[in-house]
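Response to reviewer comment R2.3. The reviewers asked that we include at least one raw input/output pair. We reproduce the pair for Basal-body rod modification protein FlgD here without editing.
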Amino acid sequence: MSSVSGLNGLGISSTQDSSSSNKSTTIDQQAFLKLLTTQMTHQDPTSPMKNSELTSQLAEISTASGVGDLKQSMQNLGDSLSSNQALQAASLVGRNVTVASDVGLLAAGGEINGSFNLSSSSDVVTLTISDPDTGDVIRKIELGQKEAGTVGFSWDGKNDAGTLVSPGLYKVQAEALIGGVNTAFQPEIETKVESVSLSSSGNAIQVSLAGLGSMSVNKIKQIL
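Raw output as returned:
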C-alpha cells in the first residue's frame, strides 16, 4: 500500500511501501529547487507565498532522504525569490491601483476617483471633499439613493462654486444615513504606482504611490 505526501503541491510525489519501510526515495535537490523557484516565479506579486507555507513545504521535502542540508541553498533561494517578486511587482509601475486612503491626489486638470463599500442601502449618501490641513469643506457631493455594495465616485476638482481648485492632496469622506445614523465608510482611492522597491530588510515589497507615499504592495486592493 502506498501513500502520497503533500509534495504534490510542488509537483513532487513521495511514496513509501509499508512492506519495505527501510527503502528510501531519493529526491534530487536541484530538481526540488527548480520546481520551488518556478512556483514562486508565477505567484501573484500582490499575494506572495507566506513564510508559513514555504516552511511547510520545506518541512515535507526535508523528511525525504537524499536532500541533505538545504540551509545555505534555501538562503540563496530566498534572496533570489525576493528579487524575483520585486521584478514581478515592477510590472505595476505606471498602472492605476486602488488603496484604502482618506486622501487623494488631484493632478492638474485631473480628478479624484474611488469607491467605498456601503453596508446597507441608503437614501442619503454624501461625498465630502475638504482641505486636509484646515478641514475647510471644498465640495459636498450628494450621491443620492444607493443600494448596499460598492459605490463609485468621482470628483472633478471643482469647489461648490464651480471653480477649479489647485492641484494637491484633498481629504475624501464618504458617509451615508443608515437607520437614522450618519455612518462613515472607508474610501478606496485610485492612484498610480510610481515605483517599486524592496524594504531595508529585503523581505517585503514596497510601492510608491502618487501623492500617498510608500506602502506595502499588500495594501493594494485592486489593479485597474
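The longest strand covers residues 168-178. The chain has three helices and twelve strands. Further pairs are available on request from the corresponding author.
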